[in-house]
């Protein structure tokens, strides 16, 4: 890929934050709360700590072998054939998860704001936006994220300030919810919440210097974790645990409670605007990254040509579930547990191969 203008560390930070922190606006809080009750607010911290070893391993190996991107690392350590097999497996997992995530987002838009609009129409519009934005290239995506992220963070801060009087901190107790073992188990199984960071390793060639990626990406990841924990804490303090586990979209639900006197009505549309922009940037970035991943696996230099077909394939797969409930209760939950196992397994496979190469005297 030819990139005339490289991404800065701040743009990497912005892309990382938008990619990771959007879980505060989907059904993730209610899904975790069903298993951990009022302890769900700090489960993301356990998930992050659980995902740290695979992330650290990949970052170390990428630096150690000066790999251009993920697939390059796979082929360096496993050979061309097995490296491509692993690349295909990663692509397929990412592809299906992104398809179901987009279906979930479409369900949110329909249920909460456009009840009379057909699912197909909303999905088609989201697909067109994601394809158009992805074709513009990673530099445009990064620049857009850099401009938009401060406004998104300010909108979240405004929301928290406005609902602060209704917060009841005592609702976080008992601190271990359904029990310590259950909380830690759920934290580990949901560590794939941060696995999308691994996809960002595909864009190393588009960053000015590798250290800019590591700096922006790691800081963005840490800030995202803090942001998620804090917002989940707000959810716990605002809703009681019986409410949060039956509230599919707590972010949108909480905006319904915001009031600024009698003059300002329908204030939730203000937050909807910023949520939609963040959503667009996220789906655009994910489409670009998996297209790049597919192109790298099959040695397609002009992988941008893949964005259009892959974008529409995502829509077709996403439309297969008959309703949003199936997506959330089955795919979103079970598929993420499966992804956790995969994201833990393949970095250690690569690490084992690295040690084997060192022993044989074949490492760089």
From TrEMBL:
InterPro entries, per the entry: Spore_GerAB
Main location: membrane
A Pfam family: Spore_permease
Membrane topology classification: Multi-pass membrane protein
Protein name: Putative spore germination protein
Phylogenetic classification of the source organism: Bacteria, Bacillati, Bacillota, Bacilli, Bacillales
GO cellular component: membrane
Similarity remark: Belongs to the amino acid-polyamine-organocation (APC) superfamily. Spore germination protein (SGP) (TC 2.A.3.9) family.
Subcellular location as annotated: Membrane
């Amino acid at each position: 890929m030819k990139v005339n203008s490289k991404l800065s560390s701040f743009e990497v930070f912005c892309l990382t934050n938008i990619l990771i922190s959007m879980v505060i606006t989907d059904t993730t809080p209610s899904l975790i709360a069903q298993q951990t009750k009022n302890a769900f607010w700090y489960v993301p911290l356990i998930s992050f700590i659980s995902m740290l070893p695979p992330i650290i391993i990949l970052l170390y190996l990428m630096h150690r072998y000066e790999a251009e991107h993920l697939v390059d690392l796979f082929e360096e350590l496993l050979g061309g054939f097995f490296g491509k097999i692993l690349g295909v497996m990663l692509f397929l997992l990412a592809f299906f998860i992104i398809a179901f995530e987009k279906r979930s987002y479409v369900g949110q838009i329909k249920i909460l704001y456009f009840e009379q609009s057909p699912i197909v129409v909303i999905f088609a519009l989201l697909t067109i936006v994601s394809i158009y934005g992805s074709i513009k290239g990673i530099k445009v995506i990064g620049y857009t994220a850099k401009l938009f992220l401060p406004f998104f963070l300010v909108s979240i801060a405004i929301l928290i300030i406005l609902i602060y009087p209704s917060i009841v901190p005592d609702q976080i107790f008992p601190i271990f919810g359904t029990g310590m073992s259950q909380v830690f188990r759920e934290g580990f199984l949901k560590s794939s919440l941060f696995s999308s960071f691994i996809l960002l390793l595909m864009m190393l060639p588009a960053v000015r210097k590798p250290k800019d990626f590591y700096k922006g990406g790691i800081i963005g990841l840490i800030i995202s974790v803090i942001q998620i924990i804090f917002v989940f804490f707000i959810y716990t303090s605002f809703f009681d645990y019986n409410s949060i586990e039956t509230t599919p979209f707590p972010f949108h639900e909480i905006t319904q409670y915001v009031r600024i006197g009698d003059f300002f009505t329908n204030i939730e549309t203000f937050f909807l605007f910023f949520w939609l922009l963040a959503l667009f940037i996220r789906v655009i970035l994910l489409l670009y990254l998996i297209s790049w991943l597919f192109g790298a696996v099959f040695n397609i230099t002009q992988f941008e040509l893949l964005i259009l077909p892959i974008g529409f394939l995502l829509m077709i797969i996403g439309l297969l579930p008959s309703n949003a409930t199936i997506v959330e209760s089955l795919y979103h939950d079970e598929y993420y547990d499966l992804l956790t196992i995969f994201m833990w397994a393949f970095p250690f496979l690569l690490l084992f191969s690295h040690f084997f190469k060192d022993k044989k005297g074949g490492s760089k």
